[in-house]
Specification:
The complex is a heterodimer of chains A (148) and B (304). Chain A is of the alpha+beta class and 148 residues long. In chain A, 21% of the residues lie in helices and 44% in strands. Chain B is mainly alpha-helical and 304 residues long. In chain B, 62% of the residues lie in helices and 7% in strands. In chain B, the strands form two sheets. Chain B has a two-stranded antiparallel sheet. Chain B has a two-stranded antiparallel sheet with strand order 2-3. Classes of the chains: A alpha+beta (148), B mainly alpha (304). Chains A and B meet through helix 1, helix 2, strand 1, strand 2 and strand 8 of A and helix 1, helix 3, helix 4, helix 8 and helix 10 of B.
Chain lengths: 148, 304
Amino acid sequence: MTSMKKILFILMVACSSCMLVNAQSQDPLVSSCVMNIGDGAKYLKDFKVQLGKGTDTGELRYKERMSLWKNTKYRFTMCNDANSQGQLIITIKDENNSVVLSSYDEKSGKIYSSIDFVCNRSGIYQICYDFYRGEAGLGIGVVSMVRK
Amino acid sequence: MKDKLLIILLIYLSIGFSCRNTSRKSGDFFFPENDAIPLEEAEKLSAEAIADISRNIASPVEMANLLLMLDVPFSSSYLASSIDPNKRATANEKALALGILGADLGYLNMYGMTGTSVNMLSSIKKLSEEISVGQFFDFETIKRLSLNKNDLDSLLFLSIDSYTQIDEYLRNNDRGHLSALMIIGVWLEGQYLATQVVNEYPDPILRDRIGEQKIILNDLMLLAAPYCNRDPQFGNVCDYLEEIKSAFRGVNITFTMGDPISEEVNGALVVTQTETSEVEMTDQQLEEIIAVTKKVRDKLISDD
């Protein structure tokens, strides 16, 4: 009985340590993506995108609002987890729901992992992420600012 | 007895795992651009909508980055150094001060003034611990990075990420009012910084950025609205926001349409927006915004 209590105590202490470490550590996928935003880029925020398999309707499923300011050059960097089936893509829409940019070029079929956006209209934009062709996947979108 | 111990262990584990941060969810809520959202409408906002607004507003470094880009020299006189964490009695006051100091920390880090930021970190540490969010700051690492100026990018990332985590944690744990106050503090201090600088360096880009805050001010008020009747302290903050909003009423933002231009540069895509926004703001309106921002900010950092 005493040994059972000991085991229980050890497990509780071990779990407490795990929880504490978890609260304080950074997501390694985020950290590695932030490391790749390029020299001179200042980190602004990140979006962790984890999606199951969807349909290839063209409508991106993960959406966030973000204010982007005139006279600012933003960099949108996309990173994929090593085990991600899909490749992360981004589309940005303005307040009129018009597409301002997309990391997927329909004409060439090319997917860009980084886009620089020279913003000349301040406003609240919709940042949309998904995985190419609605695949399941895990990825990070990092927004940073770069000197114009 | 063994079964009981097992049950205790399972309960403990489930509590532990349920306390972890959940991953961010997507949302597609849009607000009307009208700047007169009725309070009762704002009070009905879903948690997801509030989360959307919070994530959009909370950025303690954008204004500081603009100042740096404009080659505005650093000045410690803009900092809210007078905030004494020991004199912040209520959780509301602590959360607000945490936001204000967060913006200052962003300003210091952006300019590489990390020696001063170490002092500010101790105030932030105390405030965050007193509202039980200290676990989201890895103070030792942030302090180490502050003392080692070679890794400013990591320092910026860690500082911003800590604030983002605190914001999410507070909202997810029924303390959205503290999250709102923290975000208001961040925004207000950023705006204070810009309005003080524009007095000395009347750069048109900075002037426009101040006027453009009208775009985000409505969201800020929506964020605060559900808590305006919560307690007198929060009510005062809402009144202050109303005062600031009044100063922006005459500011006009117009748009010129245009299609974005895309080009590939060294394998990366560069998109330049040709659509533009223009701020129409008179000198008098700017003066009013500068004055009301200073008045509100000074009141909120005073210990009285």
